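WARN  no MSA supplied for this record, continuing single-sequence
INFO  ligand: zinc ion
INFO  echoing inputs
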Amino acid sequence: MKEIRIDSVNNDMIVFAKDRSKRPIDVVITQTEKEVSKEYEKKCPFCRGNEELSTKETFKIQEKNDWVVKSIYNKFPILDGVGKEIYGIHEVMIDTYRHNGNFYNMTEEEFKNLFVMYKNRYKNLINDNNVEYVSIFKNFLRKSGASLEHPHSQIISLSIIPPDIENEIAISKKYYMDKHKSLYDDIIKDEIQHKKRVIYNGKRFLVIVPYASKYSGEVRILFKEKIKFENIKDEDIYELSYIFMKLFKNLYRDKGYTPFNLCIHTHPKNIEQENYFNVHMHIIPRKYSFGGFELGTGVYVSSTNPEELAKKLKFK
Ligand SMILES: [Zn+2]
Ligand SMILES: [Zn+2]
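INFO  complex generated
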């Protein structure tokens, strides 16, 4: 049976086809990348001890006189600080000093350092007068766009508001104007009530498999409070660290060493009011790719049953 579903945060249209996953092309996972075993790699510019191979650092957290996470300028930036038409600063945040570290094996403590760094760099970049938006994202493994093996995240400031954000903001603003309540509050309320797509329901965050997503297997983390990313509190960081440690263990158990992208969607700097948009994170496994139908129509076919996936990933 086929059914049309709309992703309410961005209005993406999805043809939900449960039976389609049985086609061989959708179930084959080609594992081309081996798990990294070495904690240190001689030629890696992101490894501790190889600082002379990397660019200038902008931030670090030290433990026993050695850095454990740090942020550096991107050697090959998408944008640089001199553009006239579009301006931005592009940094690489090294997730952990361990070459073989990754989201699937990082400890809660390591995630805590990572989020402290995310917040620090975000706060730093958003305060630039020329900047309208700051994007944090991560590519893991080559299939997701990563060019270096050592686990890292990226942060880029922009003198524009990117279209995907503009779109999400416009949708939530319209909802607020029409109904005098917040779209995100309603999603959170509905998902908690429905229960079956909830992976984790915490004090400050809700983790779900969305009812509809153009990316099969997406997991979404929603902030319950309408807080800007630069203002997240220690307790947000603690809860997020717990969530990431646990979620990625469960993802590994379910899908193995899979490439993924993490995208954090935050408020544009000059948004008039914060009360219709909640910061949220999209975690997108890169197991599937789009075909001509998707590229030619903007209609996406999904074969993942959100309830089944949520059941597998649910925190026990
Ligand atoms: Zn390395
Ligand atoms: Zn989003």
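The mean pLDDT is 92.
INFO  checksum written, moving to next record
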